[in-house]
Amino acid sequence: MRGGLVAPAPRPAPGRVILLVDRNRDDRRRVCLQLKAAGYRVKQASTAAQALALCRESRPHILVTDWDVRGMTGPELCQTFRDLPGAGYGYAIMLAAQGDAADAVRALSAGADDFLTKPANEAELLARIAVGERVLDMQERLVAANLKLQCTLDELHKAQEEIESDLREARKIQQGLVRERQAQIGAFELSLLMRPAGHLGGDLVGFRRAGPGRFAAYAIDVSGSGVTAALLTARLAAYLSGADAEIAGQGILPGPRQVVEGLNRLMIAEVQTDAYLTMVYVDIDADSGLIRLVQAGHPYPMLQRADGQVTPVGFGGMPVGVFPDTKFEEVELQLEPGDRLFIASDGITEAVSLHGEQLGDEGLIAAMRTNAPLRGPIFLESLCWSISEYTGGASADDMSAVLLEFGPESPAVG
User: Fold this and answer.
1) Which residue of 60, 155, 227, 291 has the fewest CB atoms within a 10 Å radius of its CB?
2) Could you give the CA distance from residue 323 to residue 276 in angstroms, rounded to a whole number?
3) Is the separation of the CB atoms in 335 and 295 below 8 Å?
4) What is the C-alpha to C-alpha distance for residues 74 and 143, in angstroms, rounded to an integer?
């Protein structure tokens, strides 16, 4: 042993293959015996051509090469070894008779991982090879982890595609909850808007017929979004439809206060979730234009008179499903020919501009005045376009609305 160092005891073969390249047969034989005694499998080559042929046949885990190799220099062999196609990383150790810094820099720049001066001390060489093994172990664990991660990502991507497909179908079903988007009832023209920001939304709009000359309309916004909100809107739609069935034989439509208080009891007692909802429920006499409504935490309904002027109506009120004994107040309005009532969700009133400013009630009033000459679905589409221009096309929340227009005359520009 050289330098007073004691070589480590041979260990069981780790399965690593070392390619030893040295034109000097005696030096090559000496190092080969040391490596085999340590438990490594060793292949030998005296020329660059032999070494590269062995690499192409079966790429070694570790390359130990002399600086002076027939056919090319050691650094050139390292560089070629690095460029060979094949799986995994190969660790390269360069041996050189001269140990100056310039040679070490050249060797490392050409792709060598380590540099030793010949004749290499056995213990030091084995220690450097052990370092290479740790690097290879880490590389293999990283490759295995990346492969496992890629497989997991592929499975997640497949699952996501299935979920996206289900959500698209669910959106079709949810949109189907609004069976009619436009209706003529007595002297009223009714138009509905429902545009989820994502696949599924928590908004619901609709109307209920209640015999000759009477109907009710509603706008609901469930807190949150996604599947939970969508399922709750479906249940609310079923509740309102069920209420229709209950009153069909009597010809009696419950008033706004009774309907909203009934929904509040349902949310508190039966719906086991932290969700709540805001809503406006409107009872309409289709012939006289008399309206009764309850506002429960929803944005203020906007009454636009025939002259184009817009006034918020309602008392604000508490959301539905928060407190069990909440009392809801009714508002009574008399519409005249040419008047209309517009009920929007907060996806409209809270639309944010590129400068971070909310549209708010004042912005909605301005948009309604601008679009005053329009009617029905055209009014709704133009209003949506105005909001899109305001937000720069961004939409962070569902947009829904109910438009009730009384009589044939359109509001004038205010």
Assistant:
1) 155
2) 10
3) no
4) 28
CB under 8 Å, gap of 24 or more: what pairs does 167-173 form?
Answer: 167/199, 167/200, 168/199, 170/199, 170/200, 170/227, 170/230, 171/196, 171/199, 171/200, 173/234
- Polymer length in residues for the chain: 414
Tens-place pLDDT, residues 254-290: 789 988 998 898 888 876 677 889 999 999 999 899 9
Same domain, 262 and 130: no
What CATH number does the domain containing 186 carry? 3.60.40.10
Closest CA to 93 of 7, 13, 22: 22
Q: Residue 95: which CATH number?
A: 3.40.50.2300
Q: Looking at the structure, tell me whether residues 140 and 182 fall in a common domain.
A: no
pTM, 2 dp:
0.61
Give tens-digit pLDDT for 29-39. 999 999 998 88
Confirm whether 6 is domain-assigned.
Answer: no
Cβ atoms of 358 and 317 closer than 8 Å? no
